[in-house]
Every structure is written in structure tokens, then in C-alpha cells.
């Protein structure tokens, strides 16, 4: 008899999880339709994760980011300010360099060739005219490779 109750409990739990997964719709995943203007858009927000630790050990910096209430696309200029839902791109500065690069892909940012030691990457969420809306700085350390570490 206990087996029957266990089976029923498993079925009930799987039905609950399945219905929660089904309740998610395309708008939940992709955001609002780009075909309809949004009145009173919420402020744009930038979310930046720390670099993937496994890759740092190899001297590679992989940083994932996401935006809320802004789509990252390669569209620039004053006319693009009127696009709804809001669009923009990122300015990325490594170690306080006097220059930055622009990312309009929405994909993981990859930085290679940094020497061992502490580093930081500044992410700036910008509108199509390059006005900064939000920013985040990620600090990390690239370890000395085990093969070149001084022996004690």
C-alpha cells in the first residue's frame, strides 16, 4: 500500500513541476514584443556575474551579463532613442584603460591575455547615443599558473 502512496506522491509532484513550467510563456522568456510600444517603461538595469572561476585558472575571463528593460542590439544614434521597448549596448573598460570597447551582442564577454594578478572590468549600459544608464564593476584575480609559480 505504501508503494501506491509513493507513486501518487511522485505523480502529484511531477504534475506540479510540469504545470509550473508550462505556465511560463514566451513573454516571460523573451520580454515584451518589439512590435508594440511600451508606455512608462521601467528603468533599465544591468546584471553582471563574476567571471567563471574554472576559466580564470587558465587565464581566461568569461563574464556573463544580462539586462532588464533594455534589449542589447547594434543600433545607434539619436533616432533610436524613440524605439520601444528600449534598446542599447554596453561599453566595456578593462583595468581603467583610457579606452573602451562596445558590445552589442548580448553574449558572454571574453577577455584574454591579462597577466596574473588583480584586474577589474567596468560594464556600462548605454543608450543608442552612448549615454550611460547603469554600470557595474567586476573585480577578480588571475592566478599565477601552477607551472610558473615559485617553489618553496
TrEMBL record:
UniProt-listed Pfam families: DUF6130
Stored InterPro entries: DUF6130
Keyword line: Signal
Residues in the signal sequence: 1-20
Highest taxon above the source species: Bacteria
Protein name as it appears in the record: Copper resistance protein CopC
Amino acid at each position: 500500500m505504501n508503494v501506491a502512496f509513493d507513486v501518487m506522491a511522485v505523480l502529484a509532484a511531477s504534475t506540479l513541476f510540469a504545470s509550473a513550467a508550462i505556465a511560463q510563456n514566451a513573454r516571460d522568456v523573451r520580454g515584451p514584443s518589439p512590435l508594440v510600444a511600451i508606455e512608462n517603461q521601467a528603468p533599465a538595469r544591468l546584471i553582471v556575474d563574476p567571471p567563471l572561476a574554472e576559466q580564470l585558472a587558465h587565464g581566461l575571463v568569461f563574464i556573463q551579463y544580462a539586462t532588464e528593460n533594455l534589449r542589447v542590439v547594434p543600433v545607434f544614434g539619436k533616432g533610436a532613442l524613440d524605439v520601444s521597448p528600449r534598446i542599447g549596448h554596453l561599453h566595456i573598460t578593462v583595468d581603467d584603460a583610457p579606452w573602451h570597447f562596445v558590445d552589442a551582442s548580448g553574449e558572454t564577454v571574453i577577455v584574454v591575455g591579462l597577466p596574473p594578478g588583480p584586474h577589474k572590468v567596468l560594464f556600462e549600459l548605454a543608450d543608442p547615443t552612448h549615454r550611460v544608464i547603469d554600470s557595474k564593476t567586476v573585480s577578480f584575480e588571475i592566478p599565477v599558473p601552477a607551472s610558473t609559480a615559485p617553489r618553496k
